[in-house]
Amino acid sequence: MLRRIVFGSFVALLLALFGGRALMAAVPYAIAATNVTMPNGGDMAMTHYTVSGIPLDGTLVVSCAYSGPMTTAHIPTCVYGPLHAPAPVTIGQTVTGSIDFYPYGSAIPATAQRMGSAWPAGGILAASLLLGFRRKMPRWLVAAVLAVAGVAGAASITGCAGGGNGMTPGTYAYTLTASNEATPNIPLAAAATTTISVTIP
To answer: What is the C-alpha separation between 3 and 159, in angstroms, rounded?
Structure first.
């Protein structure tokens, strides 16, 4: 009998401590986002997303990437927007935001975080290393390598524009991923994804 009382009291205590948090997280962890239609004038467009049912106290990062079949089509580049640190979140929270889509071949602002591109940072690192070793290398070689790095870095940011607005008409799939990680120093993480359509008229 005493054991049942002790056990019941323990369960009641656990429910009192964690029950509210568990109920808050009862909403399924998911991300939803709006489809995008790129303007004819070559302007950028954006998708608005909602992340619901955050399962872990910690941080949240939402990323975007083309997820259709391999293609040579001129398609938009999706970027999160200004450089940012992962947003702090709590269990059960709902987070809203947007992701920008830039037309193929258009310049992406330097303050934008371009997913999947390491060229700008890599180019800066390569240039720094070359400048450090410039005394041991012929000047013409340093100048040639820096010129190639600059051209490649610019191409990675601006792309190669085609005719019209530089994009291939069609509808393309992009996947948004919401990554939630617990902090501090707890190896727990959860991810939710959604796929949207980006239409180029």
So the answer is: 71
